[in-house]
Amino acid sequence: MIFKVFNEDWLESLDTFEEIMWLLILYLILLLVIAIFLKIALGFFSKSRRTDFGQVFLTSFLITIAFAIVFLFFGGWLAWIIALIITWIVICIRHNVGFLSAIIITVLAFLIYVIVALIIGAILDVTLIVLPF
């Protein structure tokens, strides 16, 4: 009964052990990228606690798990809204910042990522991010 809620299409692409390992490697790279930019953004707030890389890595892990669970059950704008609110709550609780500060940290981390991606993309002449404008 519960399996009808899940989107089973993504499981079809994981046929071999090698494909599962590549998925896990890409997930680890995603966690590292999120943790790096989240740590940089947290550095701008002097009152934030637990800003060493291990704690920020754990925060990024919790955020990705929250996104996965929310997008597993919901879709569209509702999933984005719920996932972002959970992200801001996780940042508030884990790093002892206010809710507005968590929103600013998230926006700042995203802007730093966009700037770095555009610079690296210009240097390497590749597209690392596609902006809608």
Form type: globular
Q: Please provide the count of β strands.
A: 0
Largest sheet: none
**What is the CA-based Rg, rounded?**
17 Å
Number of helices: 4
Low-pLDDT parts are: none
Give the structural class. Answer: mainly alpha
Task: State which percent range the strand residues make up.
Answer: under 5%
The percent of residues in helical segments reads 55-70%
Mean pLDDT: 85
User: Separation of termini?
Assistant: 42 Å
Number of domains: 1
Secondary-structure element order, as H and E?
HHHH
Characteristics of this structure?
mainly alpha; 133 residues; globular
Quick summary of this structure?
With 133 residues, this protein is mainly alpha-helical.
Structure description:
It is a single chain. By secondary structure, this protein is an all-alpha fold. The chain has one domain (15-124). The chain contains 4 helices and no strands. Helix 1 (17-42) packs across helix 2 and helix 1 (17-42) crosses helix 4 (99-124). It is globular, with a radius of gyration of 17 Å. It starts with 16 loop residues before the first helix and ends in a 9-residue tail after the last helix. The mean pLDDT is 85.
